[in-house]
Structures are given as C-alpha cells and as structure tokens.
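Researcher: Quick one. two chains, 342 residues in total.
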Amino acid sequence: MSMMQLFAQIEQSDISIWVRESLWAFPTLLVAHAISMGIVAGGGMMLALRALGVAQGVPYRALGQFAPLMGWGGLIASVSGGLLLAGYPAKALTNPVFALKFVFLAAAISLGRFVWTRSQAEHGRAGRSAGTRWAAGLSVLMWVGVIAAGRFLAYTHRLLLVS
Amino acid sequence: MRHDPIFDPDAIVRFAYDTGIFGFMNSKWGWPLMETVHFIGLSMLIGAVGAFDLRMMGFARAIPLAALHRLVWVGVVGFALNSVSGALFFMSAAGQYLYNPAFQLKALAMLIAGLNVIVFYSTMARKVLADTEDAPIPTTARVMAAVSLISWLCAVAFGRLLTFFRPPYDWCAWCGAGG
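Model:
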C-alpha cells in the first residue's frame, strides 16, 4: 500500500471524518491545541529564563510544583494534535515543515529536561554553569522553532486531502 | 449594506495599504510570520502571567509570590508583541475582525483582563506582594487572579476561533440599517 493509499484510508475512517465534519470538533481541537501548546512552550521558556537569571527568588525545587500542569499541557497538546493529524493526515505528512516541528520539539524537550536536571544539581550555587545557560538559551530558540513551524504549517502544505 | 457610525474599516484598510502594512502582511510570509510572533507573545503571557495567577489562586505555594511576580515583565513583553502583531492583522482586514462575534468576544475578554490589571495594581498588589511571610492570600486577590487567568484564556480561545469562524453576514449590534 502506498503512502497516499494509507492517507486516503485514514481520511475515510470515522474519527477522521468526525474531526473534519463535526460542527464542534475542529474548532474545539484548535483551541485546545493553542492553549496547551501555550502552556508547554510558555512553561518551557519560563524555566529557561529562570536558569538564565530571571526571577532569582523563585526556588527551582518549588518550580516543580508546576510540573503536573506541564504534563497535562503536553498530554492535551498530543491528543488534540493527534486528532488534527487524523483529520488531515496527507496535509501534515507530505509537508517537511511538519517533520521540522517535531525536530524542534524533541530538541526543546531534551534541552528543557537537561536544564531542569542540571538546575537541581547546581541548586544552592550562586549562578548556573555556562553549559546550563547555553542549554537554556537554545531551548528558548527551539520553542520559537516549534511555534514558527506550527504556524507555517498552515501556509506551506501541498495537499489537503487525497481521497 | 451596513452603516457603521463608529468604525470605518475601509479607512483602516486604506491606511494599512498606504503605509505598506497591507502589502507586507499579504506578502508571501507576512501573515505566518506575524502569527508566529503572536503565538510567541501569547506563550510568554501564559507562562509568566498564567503562572503568577495560579500561584495567587493558591497553587504551587512553595514558590514565594513576590519572587514569582519578578517574572511578570516577561508577560508584559509578550503582550507588547501581541499588540503589535495583532494590530497588523486587524489593520489588514479590519472588516473581518470588527464584525466577527469571535473578535468582539475577544475584545471583551481583553477589556475585562485590562480592567482587572488596573484594579489589582491599584488595590491589592502592594499588600499581597509586600507579604514575605507567605500569609494566606486575601479572597479578593484570589478572585482577581482567577478573573485574569480566565479572561486571558478566553482571549486566546476567541482569537483562535476568529480565524476559523467567518460569519455569513456582518455581525454588528451598533450598526444602523440601510446606508
């Protein structure tokens, strides 16, 4: 089965049709994806800024109290994103910008985890090490990349539907 | 044909056209570039102001409130990015925004959020932020935090919807008939 046939098959599935044709599904998914991505990207950027020296009175360990919220944000972003993908598989999967979004996302998450671990380890020291600060700065750039790729996705697709 | 006694969307778009804004926004990458700026700004707003609101509502109590408030300027920068990018969208397609109920609700949410900022900083902020002992936060301040969080999230939600929802006719409660 070719990729195009696979996309066509997904497009004809009940869930894919529901995403495209239900009155509320698509707008609800767009709003859920926007807010959850805002939470994840915003939270990631705040962690990075803290590591770069902003709001130094905020203890790292305590910042962990926001971790469950980040987890929920990530879950909602994944589910809503997955359903949007199910609605228009060919639109995303024939567009290299979609792959780029996930490259940026993987880098942003990895760098964020690295900054988080290192910040805990460096707890109590006056400032963060150069490595931690570089990782923090890069993670902000990666979040910008995730956002840019996400927005440009809507303007760069070659196909919408193949069936 | 609508007759709008308050706003003149055609004049706004003409201004955008004369200043080159319209041309930039409708160039190949103008619109998605500004959408990117707009989303970066809203992430900064959610990350900084949203976190502060949640803390003031009573979450994440291990974080000193005043210390977390040092992050709020990031949200202000985010809001500035959104004001500029948002104004560019608006001026390039004024009619599609003004007469779209999603935009009207977004404007209302931002008005509430803005008034809430003014009320919070002129009444509760000094007391709440001076408290280094982490005393319980007054209910009034917690309500303001909830109003802030809900109204900003509504602004995001209606903002996302307005690009998706195009009303079949002009939605204008303040316009007269005829014209």
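Residues 9-162 of chain B form one domain.
Researcher: Thanks, that's what I needed.
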